[in-house]
Amino acid sequence: MIAQGFKLLIRSFMDFVFISECEICGKYLEDSKMIVCKECLSKIERVDRFDIERKFEEKFAGGFISKAFSCFHFEENTIVQKLIHEMKYNNKRSIGKILGEILGSSIRDEHDFITADALLPVPLHKIRKRERGYNQSELIALGVSKVIGIKVISDLLVRVRNTQTQTKLNLHERRENVKDAFKVKNKYKDFIVGKKFIVVDDVITTGSTIIECANVLKQNGADKIYALSVAIA
Ligand SMILES: [Zn+2]
Questions:
Q1: Strand locations in the chain, DSSP E?
Q2: Which family, according to UniProt (predicted)?
């Protein structure tokens, strides 16, 4: 715990001392917690609608997700992968907020999304959250919320099993890995009934995590579940 705090302190100090430059254009960054400037960020290629629909059809067919949206492709050795990595593992929290704002701007005219009752970040297990110090999906959800004005409820979904990291697992293993990993916090059981929720994650790969969250919400009486992620694999 103390070592973790010390590491964070050192990191903030490094950010303070070293001037950061945009990894793409080399321009000085006002926010040292970013790795690319806003202008370069706005130029990163977006997933087109046709692509999104095809991918979600593959991942969510027959399930409880009524609608889904992602901004970017998640591919190896791209700036998007790097941004997400820095956000998750290197304490670059402002990346989460900014990616969330981009995501929010992309859906600000989508009726289903903007009439939802709440944004629900995919929760981390409390042990993982303690190690990292924050939940990246929550940062993204806060960015989305800033644009579309829908509240974020961070503690409605709870991760009850500290699942292993999914990076090296195949589809079947991922499904098993997240099975029964989530629960709804008791105090929200009445609130959920008949409501529409947007589940927010950083990356949708197989969709297993979001599907599992949706199952739990549905079992507790939610009306509709939408999915939102910064990137899609
Ligand atoms: Zn730049």
A1: 65-73, 118-121, 157-159, 182-184, 196-204, 224-232
A2: Belongs to the ComF/GntX family.
155 CA distance to ligand 1 middle (Å): 35
Q: Residue 35 corresponds to which amino acid?
A: I
Predicted local distance difference test score (pLDDT) of residue 38: 87
Sheet holding 65-73, edge to edge: 65-73, 224-232, 196-204, 118-121
CA 97–ligand 1 middle distance (angstroms): 18
Provide CATH 3.40.50.2020 ranges for the chain: 45-232
CA of 26 to the centre of ligand 1 (A): 6
Cα of 25 to ligand 1 centre, how many Å? Answer: 4
Compute the distance from residue 225 Cα to the ligand 1 centre, in Å: 36
| Residue 3 alpha carbon to ligand 1 centre in Å | 34
Of 8, 4, 225, 232, which Cα lies nearest the Cα of 119?
225
Whether the Cβ atoms of residue 212 and residue 181 lie closer than 8 Å to each other: yes
Which pLDDT does position 7 carry in this prediction?
A: 65
List beta partners, residue 228. 69, 200
Q: pLDDT value at position 10?
A: 60
Fold of 45-232: Rossmann fold (3.40.50)
- Residue 216 in tokens: 């739990």
Q: Can you point out the beta strands (E) in 77-181?
A: 118-121, 157-159
**Counting runs of H as helices and runs of E as strands, what totals does the chain give?**
11, 6
Tell how far the Cα of 179 is from the centroid of ligand 1, in angstroms. Answer: 41
Which regions in the chain score pLDDT beneath 50? none
